[in-house]
Automatic annotation (TrEMBL):
Domain called Carboxymuconolactone decarboxylase-like: residue spans: 51-130
Name of the protein in its database record: Carboxymuconolactone decarboxylase family protein
InterPro entries (alphabetical): AhpD-like, CMD-like
Taxonomic lineage from the root: Bacteria, Bacillati, Actinomycetota, Actinomycetes, Pseudonocardiales
Organism: Pseudonocardia alaniniphila
Amino acid sequence: MTRRLRPLLPAELDDDQRALLAALDARPRPVDRAADGSLLGPFDAMLRAPRSGAALQGVGAALRYQGVLSDRVRELATLLVAAHHRAAFEWHAHAPLALSVGLPDALVEAVRVGDAVEPHDPAERAAATAVGQLLTTGDVDDAAWTEVVERLGEPGAVELTTLVGYYSLLALQMRVLRVPLPDGAASVEFPARSMRD
């Protein structure tokens, strides 16, 4: 898989790109960089279109650092998106976060391999059901919606749908642009899908 865009080096950035880079660096957790200073993951692509990139990074920062979802629900939902889209970089970035916020190893592995995802926590279970439906059908049925609103509140339920859209967008963009894992990162494997998937 050949990367479709050569990474931008810091010295090559124009004013709009530098402003976006400053916003990315101001986040509680600055984005990762390669040894040459270029941005890893979806962030180099954001620099290519800095106006939409600034809006995207704002959504991502709001979801990650100012959202109403618990860390565990947010990271579980993000992993479900990554596994659905077979987004290796997204998985690489978020699986360690999911483990660090206390999601069990077995649950994280079940998401990766496509096994049933049945968290013990009712809020996490409701979120997993809603996210699974949204990813596979493009909608959430009434029973799952009622349950996710009961467990997460209306703001949490709406934020959950925003999160699925945001991380799906990043996954698709990284696929199209052939964004690789960082040098030295372990490969991420997802099982083959059946013809029904």
